[in-house]
Amino acid sequence: MHPRPHRAQNPHPDRFPSPATPSPNNQHAALTLLTDLHHHTPQLTLAESDVHHLAPAVATWFERGATPTTLRHALTTNLPHPLKCPAKLLRHRLTHLLPPPRVPVHQPTPLQNCDHCDRAFRSPAPGNCRDCGEAGGPPLME
């Protein structure tokens, strides 16, 4: 007997996804996508209550960088036949296929030119470089 291959699992498979930072734009896009699914796949006609129940999970996908096309593909491909309960299938897919959270991208501190000597230095705001400091410039050579 061979051991079963290990499958990646959602660490919280029973927890229904909801956005970390709710966004009205993502919520609107989620409602639009769910309401429109039946135009792409007639088997996925949802009741209004199902649309509102599933919308937070869809908004979470958008928050994590999924596009409407990517999400629609994840929800509509390889549907079982016959499909008895579209809302339960979508809940399962939205939960178990959820992409990982985005990793914040480190942005280096921008380069600035010193207001006095025009030397480049890293700072979040314009001003003087370390050598010119608050004194208004380097000491004069005599």
Compile the SSE list and pairings.
Elements: H1 24-40, H2 48-63, H3 68-76, H4 86-96, E1 111-113, E2 120-122
Antiparallel strand pairs: 1-2
Helix pairs in contact: 1-2, 2-4
Largest sheet: 2 strands, antiparallel
Secondary-structure-derived class: mainly alpha
Distance between the termini: 88 Å
Unreliable stretches (pLDDT < 50, length at least 5) are 1-10
Strand residue content: under 5%
- Strands, total number: 2
Biggest sheet: strand arrangement: 1-2
> What oligomeric assembly is this protein in?
single chain
Helix and strand pattern: HHHHEE
Radius of gyration: 26 Å
Number of helices: 4
Number of domains: 2
Q: How much helix, percentage-wise, in residues?
A: 25-40%
The overall average pLDDT, rounded, is: 85
CA-based shape: rod-shaped
Question: Explain this structure to me?
Answer:
This protein is mostly helical and 142 residues long. It has 2 domains: 73 residues, no CATH class; 31 residues, no CATH class. The chain is 37% helix and 4% strand. Strands 1-2 form a two-stranded antiparallel ribbon. The N terminus is likely disordered.
What descriptive keywords fit this protein?
single chain, 142 residues, mainly alpha, 4 helices, disordered N terminus
